[in-house]
Amino acid sequence: MPAIEYQGSSAPYSLIGRSILSIRRDQVHAMDTGHHYDAGLDQELDAFQRRVAVLFQDLAASDGGDELLSISWVRKLLDTFLGCQEEFCVILFNHRAAVGRPPLDRMIADFFERSVKALDVCNAIRDGIDHFRQWRKHLEIVLVALADPRQQRRGTLGEGQLRRARKSLTDLTLLMLDEKDAAGCVLSNRNRSFGRSSGSSSRDHHQHHRSSGGHFRSLSWSVSRSWSAARQLQAIAGNLAAPRGHEVVATSGLAVGVFTMSSVLLFVMWALVAAIPCQDRGLGIHFSVPRSYPWAAPILSLHERIVEESKKKDRKNSSGLLKEIQQIEKCTHHLTELMDAIKFPVTEEKEAGIRHWLEELAQVCESMKGGLDPLERQVREVFHRIVRSRTEGLDCLSHNPE
User: Which terminus of the chain, N or C, has less C-beta within 10 A?
Assistant: First the structure.
């Protein structure tokens, strides 16, 4: 699939989507191909780290309506990643003469390898977003069934309306339970990736097998049958350690920039897996960052808050920590309980309770309707940006002057 045009939701990222090579093409003549110390590099690296710190401090703040693990917060997280990566790649390109020299060449190669591992995470997250769309269809059926425009007065809910709504809620509950099981185990299904359209393979037809109760599993996953989100995160985190003093000196400080961006990559992929249903989810990675880094405090704070969220009683068995998932589970639980207890004719008290949770459900549907498509575009942009940055980075390495 060709890279798509994308415009982020945050103004500071107006450069997102442009080629790294085109951004600094007019600065090629200023590149230093020598081996001497670049006094300006320290300033660039300091500015980069401060920028990362500011962006994650903004994410850690509760102001602005971007509540932790909501769709809007996840979108802001992806904007942050794209902005950090943009600045990091510009630094590498500006100082590409040093990139091919040891030990920095090994560090850069390790970073690109981590980035490639993140591509499967992007595919799995995109699948999780597709699952939300399937859930939303059932929720919309409930809203339509219980909001018949012909019924204008209290106490007028009909048995047919409640029957249709209850059936859709039952279907949704089974679907979410199915996805919850899928999030905790390795499936044997394979669907599609960002590089293939949904109709590109005849194998897609047999992916949607029936689950218990005669209902279909909504979607399969675009990663292989043996793929695990938990193991993939462990692979991204593997051997990630802060550079030692001699490594910092040997790389003129660029090792710090590589470690910073590697940590950002790991945290963002981990947070996505925490929020959105993934095949074989797992959050138990070792995430240790020296607090001497200016961006360490906000990232570690976010990590701790997300871990604490995962330990809450009502979130332990959830298929994802996304705020909207919790709202869906809460609304459907209360609506099902109310409907199961209803006797006809429906009393005004019972109907008032149903109407209350319908309003909550309508708000969740509206949030999903306005947020899922932009969120998927951002995940796609992260995927394509990783691919493009790696290609351009390897090109710089291959043409690096000795």
Answer: C
